[in-house]
Specification:
Length: 225
């Protein structure tokens, strides 16, 4: 299977905030921000459903054939985590459930879109970037709201495909992308091995008239089912 399934997040029994922050910084150095993506035959959408103050995390992975976007495979898992919700450290809470769902895949995705941030994160390691590094897989962050950063200039225009850059401390970290007229823009960022402009292009290619691109839209529905 393409992509490692042996994800090694900080174990809950050993979890502490300074250790998690240090690990994020180390892993962020391994993120590749330029596109290194071969032929794509299957795209995975990844999402989690979890009450902010609950202990059960449900992860969903949907694999779609490219370019037709037909569903090839759906996998779900649910785990109990003792980790609390901590802003900026979400990946440590959700990765074990994603890992369990990913292990069930029989299909080989060459690209994954993750409902969450890529490098548009205070330490440049949101869940899409974290997952990409640990799976050794190209990933794109598709987030519904801004975690860090400010728009450069005016907000994106009203039409699908309109965009503006998001920057933090002088660095371009994401694009605010309008995917549907009248809908709020999405925050699209590099996860791993997919440059920002290519990430935007892939999201638009996978849009089917909804706010979310089809991979994460279907994963979102499966996680909440």
């Amino acid at each position: 299977m393409s992509g490692r399934a042996d994800i090694e997040p900080v174990a809950p029994a050993e979890f502490n905030r300074p250790e998690a922050l240090a690990l994020q910084r180390r892993l962020a150095e391994q993120v590749e921000r330029d596109t290194r993506l071969g032929a794509v035959e299957a795209i995975a959408g990844v999402d989690c459903a979890a009450p902010r103050y609950g202990t059960r995390i449900r992860a969903a992975v949907v694999v779609l054939r490219w370019p037709g976007l037909e569903v090839l495979e759906e996998r779900r898992s649910e785990v109990v985590t003792p980790l609390p919700y901590i802003p900026g450290l979400l990946s440590f809470r959700e990765l074990p459930a994603i890992q369990e769902a990913w292990r069930q895949l029989a299909t080989v995705p060459q690209l994954a879109m993750v409902d969450g941030q890529g490098i548009a994160h205070p330490r440049r390691l949101g869940i899409a970037a974290h997952l990409g590094v640990l799976l050794d897989l190209p990933t794109i962050g598709v987030a519904k709201s801004i975690l860090v950063g400010q728009p450069r200039g005016a907000d994106p225009g009203p039409e699908p495909g309109d965009r503006c850059d998001l920057s933090d401390r002088g660095e371009r970290i994401a694009a605010l992308l309008r995917t549907r007229a009248g809908a709020l823009p999405l925050v699209i960022s590099t996860g791993h091995r997919v440059g920002l402009d290519d990430a935007v292009a892939w999201v638009l290619r996978c849009s089917r008239g909804y706010r979310l691109p089809e991979p994460t839209r279907l994963a979102h529905l499966l996680a909440g089912r």
